[in-house]
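It would be a great kindness if you could assist me with a short task in structural biology. The matter concerns a single protein, recorded as an amino acid sequence and a row of backbone structure tokens. Kindly check, if you would, that the fold set down in the tokens agrees with what the sequence suggests. Thank you for your consideration; the sequence and its tokens are set out here:
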Amino acid sequence: MADARPTILFVGESPPAGAPPSFRPFDCASGSRLAKALGLVDREALLANVPFTNIFPTPTGVKECPPWDIHDARNSAATIMGKTRTVVCLGQTRVGPAFIAEAHAPCTWRRTEHGTDIVVVPHPSGQHQGYNTDEAKQEIRRTVLPDLCAAANVSLRPWHFRLDEPSVLADLGLALCPLDPALGASAAVLCAEVWRAKAAPNGVRLDDFRSAGDVALPILGRLCREGRDSVAAAIRPQFIVERSFAAEVRSRHKFCARTLPRPPSAEVRAAYARLVALGVA
């Protein structure tokens, strides 16, 4: 039986002009802008843990390169659809139309006949205004993070995010656990703190202690949706008293509920609907 767990793929146009054959998609300033919009610490965190591809493997539409061809682009898109659960199209004028011929509002989802969900977000080029305000970046983040947190082919961990920024932490918590974003946020912070520990109790190897926080986002999201007790049991480091750690989880949960920006009810419903559509909630 085929693995039904959700997967995700980010798709761009083509490499930039002059890119070498070994160029990784979005290993450039555009990748840095996208990473920042998604709340990640840097471009490497994005490219090392999230799958990317381009419609065309060589530069197109620039001087001394072949022109962008929508018919070839749609043929390429057809080979991608059906192989992954979610496609994030980076660009509304070229990549989006390659996957969806008709008009499609940005940051909204559409399911194709192949069973693939398509979302189109602005291209993270410096020429596009869609990444220039906090509000625009948050719209992209809230659209994409639920799928990013649920995808089985993504290896992101909580510490790959800028958890010290309240809006990023709140949006990550929402994506992990829409019905209790504060629990998702507090679980992410605790995982990151355990992973970054510099010392462990006597008799415990530091690597073993830190490994309790090494939880992939899909697993952490599932634990959060099961409830606070599941979180406390799963990420408790060795030789930390169960009752003490459960109290710490409870305290962090209450703190996040009191201090983090509360998402609008419409955003909560949208995030939960995405997880339901993906079959993980």
About this structure: The chain has two domains: 8-152, 159-277.
